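#lab-general

N.A. 3:47 PM
ok so I finally got the sequence cleaned up, no stray characters, all 336 residues accounted for. can someone with queue access submit it? mine expired

B.Y. 3:52 PM
send it over

N.A. 3:53 PM
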Amino acid sequence: MAQEDVFWEEQRETAVVDALDAAADEPVPSEDDEEAQIRDVLAFFARRDLDHRRLAGVIRQALDDALDGSRTGRYDIAALNKVEKTFVGMRVELGLSQVFNLEDGDSMDFKIAGHDVDAKFSFNRNGWYIPPEAVGHLCLVLWADDRRSKYQAGVVLITRERLNIGRNRDKKVTLSEAGRDAIRWIVEDGDLPENLLLHLPEVVHKAVWVEKAGQARVDALFRNVQRTIIPRVAVETAAKQTDPAKRARDSRRVDRLGADGILILGGDYHVYAEIARGFGLPEPGPGQWLSVRVAPSTPGERGAQQIGEGWWRLATNDDPYSPAPTISTKKAATPG
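B.Y. 4:20 PM
back already:
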């Protein structure tokens, strides 16, 4: 390393140490106060998000926003550059603020249950970078792995003793082993909503992305991914367009997938959810679809239900292809 580089690295380390030492002079809550603050934050999330769906949804939305699939066709975080990955953390912070209606903090990101709380997100487990000014404050630490569909969220009081100074040139500050041990988990092993396109089998992936036109890719998605909930973002990404409802309607047409008996059941109408329920399949919610191939049946046949003027059952691989029934959506749309 050149002498000039050594000099500037020493300067950076000195600046970080000085900042931490200055922060350490600020009053740090006692053990009792720390416990009370953490209990308040844990109780806040327990009251507002008992099943953790909202917290998981914030992270899922932040990842999807960063991928920007409707414009870029991307569905894998590995495709993001360093700057784009940095913005995921900002999107998580914004999502937390909006979904949980958090006030701005006095010196940290938020006020949660009356306490100043900083928020840090990382794609690397235990890889949160902690600013020196966070010493003496609570930090909400979040991590996600899109390939494993897992996430974590916890809260920890930052003290000088719970921090390490990195050995890299940036001298970034992270949680020490003691700091990681002090984390109180809101969710330690949470299930992140699945990134459908990221987890497609290779043969299905090829069938979708070999198509050059957006509508053809959407058709291939609905044809090859059946009896599984398909979210809005998957349709938008496959189409590289922002009107997934129109893509689904076009796929449903009798001159497209409808010719092969494939129903595209959308969650925005009760009738579609009722058909899915009648077949014992997952019910799509608003902004979701379920694709399923059906075959003509008769009243009383096991698994059959009436759709339109006829009776239909789930098709098997041995059933010949026949046009799908027409479904009236004149019933009231699902609220929201």
